[in-house]
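Researcher: Following up on the earlier apo prediction. This time include the ligand. It's zinc ion, with the SMILES given after the sequence.
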Amino acid sequence: MRPLKTPPFGVAEVIDSFGTGRTIRRVTALKAQVVAGEQDYLEVSRRQEWVTLSTRAPAIPTTEDAALRYAYTRMVDKEEAARSFYNVIESLAPNKKCPLCLERTTAALDHYLPKKHFARFAVVPANLVPICDACNDVKLSNLVTDPLLQPLHPYFDDLGGMEWLAGDFDKGPQAPMVYRPERQVGWSNVLFSRVEHHFTSLGLNELWSASSGAWLSANRFNLRKMYRDGDETTVRDALQDAADSYDDDGSQPWIPIAMRAWARSRWFCQIRWY
Ligand SMILES: [Zn+2]
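Model: Understood. Below is the ligand-bound prediction.
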């Protein structure tokens, strides 16, 4: 997970942009209650205690849920003024990289707390996160009640870089990588459990292992040539240099982890995986 900047506006501005219409007037009439809900959301988010939020707010009748969900379609519709807010939130993900898997391109805004259960947060900017289709398919509209399974929130969770990611390769054809999250000093049980859940549910080992495997496929000819023209030290040095270069870029942190794991192995540097 990569932290993102929070949207630079609140729900009041979004509601003000909705324009007219019978359903929209019902949402506008609830503006004060929705703004109050946003304050609750922000406060709970600072403590990562989303499970304590009730799906219902007494001030907002159930009969208005459909209107609140409809209002979100005004943010999605490219013809509507409210779309500008959608666009700004979408642009919070640098290079359109999904902040959850770090690999695929963002495709839509995800309701961190699903609008199916939390209609009152359907248009709250802090609840809208740009993610990719595949990560969105995993999240669906699940109502999370266990704090240990609470998804990571790119606006409010910060794992302090990617030091938590570890990995080693399997000795066999193509030396495939196996990644795992490692508990960091200062992490609570809850945070470590959430990171493990994030890692497993989104299939990040499979995704990142395929990605480092693709790097190796694209470079195996060169690595073998280096070994033939030089020796295993030539291969090791090349892998270490490549890892430094990937670290500097930082966009695919699992690849330098693979390169260093491979570089540590004489077996690998003698190209016995080819
Ligand atoms: Zn993703």
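Model: Residues 165-269 form one domain.
Researcher: Noted. I'll compare it with the apo version next.
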